[in-house]
Amino acid sequence: MTHSSPALQIESLNAWYGDSHVLDNIALHVSEGETVTLLGRNGAGKTTTLRSIVGLVRRSGSIRLRGRETIKSPIHKLAPLGIGYVPEERGIFSTLSVEENLRLLPQYADSAFTVAEIYRLFPNLQERRHSQGTKLSGGEQQMLAIARVLRSGARILLLDEPTEGLAPVIVQEIGDLLKKLKSLGYTILLVEQNFRFAKKLADRFYVMENGKLAETLTLAELNRQPDVLDRYLGV
Ligand SMILES: Nc1ncnc2c1ncn2[C@@H]1O[C@H](COP(=O)(O)OP(=O)(O)OP(=O)(O)O)[C@@H](O)[C@H]1O
Description:
The chain is built from 9 helices and 10 strands. The chain is an alpha/beta fold. The structure holds adenosine-5'-triphosphate.
């Protein structure tokens, strides 16, 4: 492991659901401290890419976390390497309270937030600390899902459509939170349909199409050629 290794480096990644070959030779990387967004139409393979990284689908190729090969690692071996996955469905324990959700997870690193630090970052979770997961708003559930991975000590965050279904004011709050995490040096790989949201955060973009990577662009390149997105996303 060298210090210059990207936080996440993927090469020749293929993935399958049963016989269906859904990711075709994906190569991408995310540097330490970088925020990268995966864009693409529904079904392009964005969620499957995140699920492949954490070993939730059958996959082959190479996935290195800070230089360490993890393609054969089961999911429970990944959290100690500093990666945290927040799925689209958020994955909180809905019958437990906010605080129970936060206290249940093991901490893997010194960088793990304490519950007090989580409450400083998410004052509304502190207010709701005795509320059951099912009683939370969509925005609160999303905040709790992100808080849980911070609590585990993850420094590389995989976030699947964190703004989906949320009101604009809450989307703004999530945006502010991600900017803060970025300023703290977190590495973020984001799947996002809301391009206007992603544009305010991301350093780089990958565009996926039919299970392949079609394009990689920096923010500056994207601003110079906005028609690229029309072509792939029809936006
Ligand atoms: N559990 C599954 N079993 C079989 N095929 C699946 C499964 N989940 C997704 N797929 C297929 O895999 C392909 C990639 O889906 P994926 O969910 O990764 O796309 P996506 O880009 O994240 O789109 P979305 O925004 O709709 O989630 C699609 O063709 C989809 O139909």
